[in-house]
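Reference record:
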Amino acid sequence: MKVLVTGGGGFLGFAICKQLAAAGHAVCALNRNRYPALDEAKIEQRVGDVTNFDSVLMATKGMDAIVHSAGKVGAWGRLEDYYDANVRGTDNVLAACEMNQIRKLVFTSSPSVVQDGSDLQGVDESAPYATAHYLSAYQKTKALAEQRVLAANGDKLATVALRPHFIWGPGDPNLLPRILKQARSGRLRLIGKDAKKIDTTYVDNAADAHVLALDKLDIGAPIAGKAYFISQGEPVTHEWLINAWLRADGFPAEARRMPLGLAKFLGAAFENVYNALGIKSEPPLTRFIVEQLSTSHWFNINAARTELGYAPKVGMQEGLVRLAQYLTRNRMQQKT
């Protein structure tokens, strides 16, 4: 099968490309820039931006399926930028599917689309979108994009949305570097006094879920038009996860805590100041980050297990070993 992966040079996208190629698919990546790692993996690359319809239309010609993993992530930024990348970019992909008669579309979504500020413990895909609560442009735009993708499922295009939670592993450019940076600066704190559990997804497991979904997906298939939570299936506390990551990079465990009320106040205050001054960089703390680090959010993945055939191949401990080896190699390379 000829498969286009949007954002194929990204953290998750690259893992998806490698696994698709290993499964025997002809893989092409659509990226804004060329990536040497994709060249080394012998993955065809097409330079373009999902926000530009012409480049998406050209890149999707001759393809049988699309894995749409490109998008703007993060906890801070202008709504217009997130909307352009996540919603308009998805609209362009859907239009290209129609124009080029592509039958299959696997979309990378996020569990944050159902996070309403409460503790979510073992909820399944029946949980509603948390439209009235969203604290970040990322949540808003991913929810809109997911709804568009699922609504497009029909007799000419089969679609499915995957919601991998807290993707991590070697090469993570998002969450892990933020945690390690805070630790190095001495500003890292646990938030709140209660131990809350969360889900995570090792990057190779997240990629495997996309490959499985693509293989199961077709027009009229049981999974068509549905969303699925993806995770390790091993909920852990915030404290356990953060300290496991710190140990992987040679840091001592963190036990210092910030009261939840103070964290919420600081998150809102930083947002107000940064908005007022037009500062584009991410604040040290936001309301969205506070919520992520102070509430339970773990999900029932039985649907993914039974309907996609998903089972995490890399467990938490094995993933942490791989992460520690990666971080050690990076430190040694920086010293030479």
In short: Residues 67 and 106 are 5 Å apart (CA to CA). DSSP finds twelve helices and 15 strands in the chain. The longest strand covers residues 158-164.
